[in-house]
Amino acid sequence: xATFRYTDPVLPKSATxxxxxxxxxxxxxxxxxxxxxxxxLSPAPELFTATWALLRESLxxxxxxxxxxxxxxxxxxELVALGVSLANRCPFCVSAHTVMLHATGDHRVAERVLRxxxxxxxxxxxxxxxxxxxxxxxxxxxxxxxFPRAHAPxxxxxxxxxxxxxxxxSSLITEDMLPGNAQRFRAVRSLGGRTLQKAVRRTVDxxxxxxxxxxxxPGPAWAAGTPIGSAYAxxxxxxxxxxxxxxxxxxxLVQATVAAxxxxxxxxxxxxxxxxxxxxxxxxxxxxxxxxxxITDEDVAAWxxxxxxxxxxxxxxxxxxxxxxxxxxxxxxxRPSGHHAKEASRP
Length: 347
Known about the structure:
mainly alpha; globular
């Protein structure tokens, strides 16, 4: 199983309050009692519950336009999550969503994408290409998203959820989803999918995760009035709390660097990366935003000293990660409708 690199998480047996409630929902609705990237956030309950709420309401809920999923399929949404994870170079999440595609029964799609091939179905191919392109603000695939407006909350919500979760996973847990990297074998991936088939086929009622949030807000326009919008707003507010761990100069540096980001993975060497000795907090936040897989033990040790705790580290990583998510969201929010251009233009 995944190893937690820098924190001691709160596991279900010792969880209380809303953290325990969220774990119970995960076990029942997701079929995975302790999804490692979310468990990594458990030292900060407000981040843990909001991240679960966004994942649940966007990825798991389906089939009802009233609540924003627009009748999309679980395969479609898993393709979005997988495409985002590929773009962000998150091996753990790529493996996880390949297994989840096997769980939907779309074995051929799962293996084709893992081999770097396009899905044979042209609609699925366009959706995967859109998801991969969401990392790049000026990507041509974003001009006309391959889904109608009714699908925007589910697809955009899933994409943004995993832009955040990918960064948390790459920052705070190891890459292997299974012991010995066993998920590299197709038979293991297929078997893992079969164990999750019942959970994937389960009907999940929309909005149940909102009970975990304080004073749910409507959220952004692309999902306003849906549980997805409220969950996104809650995660945005929780992640923003981490800004207080940096001084104003470091906050400004992180914000300006991410605002100018073109979606590329930073080069080696990355000359704009702050020095570990003099600005360790800004360095960690920027790595979490743009290259979390490059966070080292030395980077964490340089910053995580008393009075900083696991709670603080999780919040700093979340702040950096969500700064990038905000940058991505600003591009996607401008184009919430897709290839049904005539439909979108109607009054």
